[in-house]
Amino acid sequence: MAEERPPRLVDYFVIAGLAGNGAPIPEETWVPEPSGPLRPPRPAEPITDVAVIARALGEEVPQGYTCIQASTGGHPLELSAGLLGGTQPVICYRRGRDKPPLVELGVLYEGKERPKPGFQVLDTTPYSHSANLAPPGPGHPRTYLTYRRAAEGAGLHALGITDLCLVLPSKGEGTPHTYCRLPRNLNPGMWGPAVYLCYKVGLAKANTLVYEAELLGRYPEEDNEAFPLPESVPVFCLPMGATIECWPAQTKYPVPVFSTFVLTGAAGDKVYGAALQFYEAFPRASLSERQARALGLLSAVERGRALGGRAVRSRRAIAVLSRWPAFPAFRAFLTFLYRYSVSGPHRLPLEAHISHFIHNVPFPSPQRPRILVQMSPYDNLLLCQPVSSPLPLSGASFLQLLQSLGPELAIMLLLAVLTEHKLLVHSLRPDLLTSVCEALVSMTFPLHWQCPYIPLCPLVLADVLSAPVPFIVGIHSSYFDLHDPPADVICVDLDTNTLFQMEEKKPLSPRSLPRKPYKVLLATLTNLYQQLDQTYTGPEEEASLEFLLTDYEAVCGRRAQLEREVQGAFLRFMSCLLKGYRDFLRPLTKAPSEGSRDVDNLFFLQGFLKSRERSSHKLYSQLLRTQMFSQFIEECSFGSTRHAALEFFDSCVDKVHPEQDKPEPAALVELEELSGSELTVFITPPEEPPVPDGSEPAPQYCYDGFPELRAELFESPQEQAGALPVPGPSRSAPSSPAPRRTKQEMKVAQQMAQKSAAVPDMWARCLLGHCYGLWFLCLPAFVRSAPSRVQALHTAYHVLRQMESTKGARPDEVCYRVLMQLCSHYGQPVLSVRVMLDMRQAGIVPNTITYGYYNKAVLESKWPSGTPGGRLRWAKLRNVVLGAAQFRQPLRERWRQQAAAAQEAGSSQTVIEALGVLEPRGSPVPWRDGSLSDLSLTGEEPAAGGSPGDSGSALSAQSADALEGLSGRGPKAAGRQEEASTPRRGLGARLQQLLTPSRRIPPPELPADLAPAARRSPMDSLLRPRERPGSTASESSASLGSEWDLSESSVSSLSLRRSSERLSDTPGSSQPPSLEIQLSSCSLCRACDSLVFDEDIMAGWAPDDSNLNTTCPFCACPFVPLLSVQTFDSRPSAPSPRPAPAGVSGSKDAPAPGGPGPVLSDRRSCLALDEPQLCNGHLGGASRQVEGGAWAYLSPLVLRKELESLVENEGSEVLALPELPAAHPIIFWNLLWYFQRLRLPSILPCLVLASCSGLPAPQAPSPWLTPDPASVQVRLLWDVLTPDPSSCPPLYVLWRAHSQTPQRVAWPGPAPESLSLDLLESVLRYFGLNEGHKAIGLLLETLGLPPTGLHLQRGIYREILFLTMAVMGKDHKDIVNFDRRYKTAFNKLASNMGKEELRQRRAQMPTPKAIDCRKYFGAPLEF
């Protein structure tokens, strides 16, 4: 699959302004008409001087100064009035443009502090008297005004103080809107009211015409289908309008102003924009006489005479639009373009840089975490991959929010947003508005603002301030130079750190918030605010290449940490605020009706309100009525594209404790590791055009201003731009049946695996749970390929019930969710309700994603017609019938026991019939020629995928019906289930009694034509059961020297099956499988030349979903285990019989070809029934084509991650294609191994058959997915597939060679003389006599000391275990009892030799982890 093209950083480049092509512009100026009364026109000149005069000393107001004689409420002002010796100071100010304006004022208490840097102290009056504002006296500090002036050359557009006023709080006067109040009292004495000085900062301009901005140019010209260019972009690029201004001729151009904005689509998706505003010369010829007079270009006295010394300028903007909020990179790029346009000449046109940046600069990704863009030899920018966080990506800056407002005001705004008030954020810095407004809507996560949201509102859209709905709007502060704020709006001034609101329309007090979470939030924000004052620095305007490559991350690291901590504080508060909300969700459990999607039907509002503390009921009452809370409940109930973020919030809710007075030590928002790669991708500047003669190209591009874009100068893209991927959450629809875990679920699963790795029992359960998760991950392909999809869904439900009934593996939530997804996809709402009820009974609380899929299935699927009362009555009748069958079960069992006892003394055929081996008429078990070669024993219950030993083909219609009949009745129908799917009880115990002499039951007489063995087998001394009461029962059905288990639970769990581990569907079916697959996970550790078996490999895996290594139990070295595969294709046109191997055909115990199979008294042949190559008592079959290979044996954790990646990239359909074994062999063979190990139904064996046949990709339902049940056979082997001829043969192979028992593979090499039959019999005899330490010691003595002695690759434990299993048979061996005996023998021997020496000689037992893995993963494998 080709690599996906990375998304672009920038999608569009636009130019906005007024057309200056010589055409006259409209006469009418654009004047907005927002609500509210108009204020007096703003002053044309800023304040340049401030003075204090002492009226008591006879000083007069200087010429050109204005005296402040009254407060804002009209009250007279006299500082130090009525005091003896008072100077009666008065504050005066002067406007003008002869010097830089004042930008900041202050009050200084002499002797208590020092002046701030850059401030000047106003200590004298214009008449050289003291300018002390405080009354005279020793107890009053001398009080002076201080001021700071703008820098020289600041220009016409420098911000400055435009107004001054004094307020008297004792008279009820407050700070006027957009004014900044100094915190120091100008009258600190005991006499007189407190007086505070307020000033307003603004931009004083005159001779300005304002017009609506137009689109002057764009690139590319064509719209992208996934992201068309919005028509309103020009007015957002110039939110205050496109202006024409008249300046003095020598006025310098101001610094370009950077601004950002956000456009929200109808679906809630965001488009981020960044604009750079600058001024250019405007031709006078385009102005009419009226416009020229309004600009002051014509004399007001002499009509038509032009005034000299004036210049006309217009404001333009260049902007970029993107799906990514990379505002620093946008600022650097736009600044580079502006500088490029005002400098020159250049060799490349400006269009080449624009097209090169758009087409060649991608957004950083894990493969490209750092991108350094070299725009010119002196201009560059660095892009870094954003922090991987489950929180939505936005342009929010919580640091700027906290720095601009402080902790108290930030919490007040949080409360206003939660209760959906009207918020108007304004500032003189347009780039600050977007970041703060984004933080306002992000601080209430997971609630999403649903009302109008315009972070940077153009004046043309100012009518939104009169809307009757809540809104969050950001606007330039110059709007209030002409208009008062609306009465019902909360105004937030980011320049003065104040919040202005009308008295009659105030939000709730912070006291209405939950008490302890509010205290923790306030304390955390206060602490961070103090750190912010010490460490915060603004963004770097310019940076060298060395700084970007070395110190950039170190400088920004502290800022990113503080940003995360502030965001985490708000997240913790929201988690405490909504703690326990999932307990009050109401799932849909019946057919939908009108109003099913209402909040009252989806959420128990009153119950949630009563669960909160009483002091916060007023807040919660308003919160529950908001639109964003209703949307939040709907998203939790039906799913949305924000499901990953909502799931992350649920994990935060589980972590927080609202009753604590301190935050939790673990951070809720963590900076995840982006990538281990340190790769930095360099993007070079566009190439210069070549010159034919090889000389230097002459610069030919020089601009007087930003030029009009010419299409022929743009570079053509190197590749065709396709539809760009949309950033954010997963792009798949919620109803898509693509099962995969979210990042949060993967993180939780990784943490649980690390905890489980320390406990052997939990580690085995963890691996088993992930194996079932793999099966449910393949479930969509399994259901899609099944002949009946409804039956396949019920099959999956039965597998889920089987997982719940067994205590080995607990189903994780993904298993339930996948089944609910498919129920929604295929319209099975009733089954979805059953799955939800089972999930609740299992104690699993569904998260947002699972809950959403469930409600979608219930709401959108078609419910079955008919009255529910009839179905209920039929269900009651069914329960009555099943109950009666349960009561009759003991009577049936008693009859079976009597019948078995009455017919026990007959012939072998009669004995078998009396034991219930032969079923009555209609039995699915065939019986041919009185042979037992087609029968074998198993101690496992039937698997969920149909027949008990299903190791081959996919689920057919018959197997699905059998599985539904098997598991659908549950524990209540155990008796009926036993009759349908298992042979009659007593078979396993009776066969073992026939195989072993017993004191209680006399052995059957041997037939006359078979003589007893000449040599007494060691089994006679091993298999003597002890005396025991008749009512006791052992743990397993067969063990070395243990009692026989005739209890109901163990006998009923035995099943009868063919040697190919399948139940034949036709009585005459005796053909060998068309395709046989042999798998083995036994791997060789090359460090110590030891074979490591399956359970040891499982125990050695690390709890890491990216680690392929396991640990050798002998040398503790890591290595990658291999899964060996061999396929035997037996589909030739003319089958030929296979010759019998040497040592078998000549044996007198071997049956003649075509003759009857071995009878029960022939122990040697009966023990060979474990070899599936014995077909009806003789070896035969057609010649087979053998193919083999070995692939990495993956842990279920690693395999699940890889499979999820495959499904996400190629879709779940790939799991049903015949090309899967060849395209992804590692994933395929590992899946086949685990599914066959757990006996789960799958289509994987049929994929092997289809791939071998070379069939084309079929259409579902696939005909090759339902082949003959006996066409594919899968065998899972415990030992290696192909032995190493240079190694020492294992003991069980030597035993079979000595006893002339048929083997799967003949040993290719010679056997050592020391490993004789006497040694094997001695080892068996010692273990039969509970003297295992002697057996181990004898074997160690025979092998000798390493490295000179014999080297057994399998270890002492494996050799003895396999030897006893070869003697007794796999199904007759109690491994638990063997482990207990071996452990006793090991400890007894260790007291003499030492445990360390025994470990060095590889005589130790498997670890508890390995034993538990073998226990939970079912019966032992073949060997």
Q: Features of this protein?
A:
13% strand, alpha+beta, seven-stranded antiparallel beta sheet, 36 strands, 1423 residues, five-stranded mixed beta sheet, elongated
Strand content: 5-15%
Distance between the termini: 40 Å
Overall average residue pLDDT: 74
Derived structural class: alpha+beta
The Cα radius of gyration reads 43 Å
Total beta strand runs:
36
Poorly predicted parts: 28-38, 536-549, 673-677, 719-737, 905-1069, 1133-1182, 1255-1267
Principal-axes shape call: elongated
What can be said about the biggest beta sheet?
7 strands, antiparallel
Helices, by number, come to 41
Portion of residues within helices: 25-40%
Describe the structure.
The chain is of the alpha+beta class and 1423 residues long. Helices cover 33% and strands 13% of the residues. It contains 41 helices and 36 strands. The strands form 11 sheets. Strands 1, 11, 12, 13, 14, 15 and 16 form a 7-stranded antiparallel β-sheet that branches. The protein has a 5-stranded mixed β-sheet with strand order 20-21-19-22-23, with helices on one face. Helix 9 packs across helix 14 (643-655) and helix 19 packs antiparallel against helix 20 (829-841). The radius of gyration is 43 Å and the shape is elongated. The two termini are 40 Å apart.
